[in-house]
User: Fold this.
Amino acid sequence: KQEVTQIPAALSVPEGENLVLNCSFTDSAIYNLQWFRQDPGKGLTSLLLIQSSQREQTSGRLNASLDKSSGRSTLYIAASQPGDSATYLCAVRLLSGGSNYKLTFGKGTLLTVNP
Amino acid sequence: SAVISQKPSRDICQRGTSLTIQCQVDSQVTMMFWYRQQPGQSLTLIATANQGSEATYESGFVIDKFPISRPNLTFSTLTVSNMSPEDSSIYLCSVEGGDGTYEQYFGPGTRLTVT
Assistant:
């Protein structure tokens, strides 16, 4: 059974700081990995999608990396802003087993960026 | 990408009653997914809804408690039946993008409080 762990559970940083969020997963036979942002009481916004054959993806100030062999992904946020404050969720999609459509989510990292 | 809307956005319901949540997508999709997010927890898949067939429920979720309809390729409903306070959660509708990447998109969620 795939398990996804996100560290740290919460992070508070001053504005302008660069930061890294971590995600680890137990089953390396993944199809892809997706990072989401969730604002309080709201739905999920897709940030970055990394296919299993890729090593990283970038979007603006965000960079996500994937090391499938070690079961790890990181989300790097450059020059953080108060508007980045949210919960960041990592989700992996299994490659096979008849459930390749199912995502397994981590519990998320609650990020607070202080002005 | 896909744009998903949900109704209602939030509701407060009494124990023992039922609530039907609607999900509308701006494009035709094969599968629609319903997730639950309990307070302080990550997302858990309730069921997958294919148009024209019975929904497939995950372990721990049953049709009598969470009946699902999928009348066409852009719409689905989830009913939470005979509610108890333990059903207080955010319920999220989700679809996959149709470009073969299996990127997942989520609706804004329905925040349900059962008193």
The mean pLDDT of chain A is 92. Chain A is about 0% helix and 60% strand.
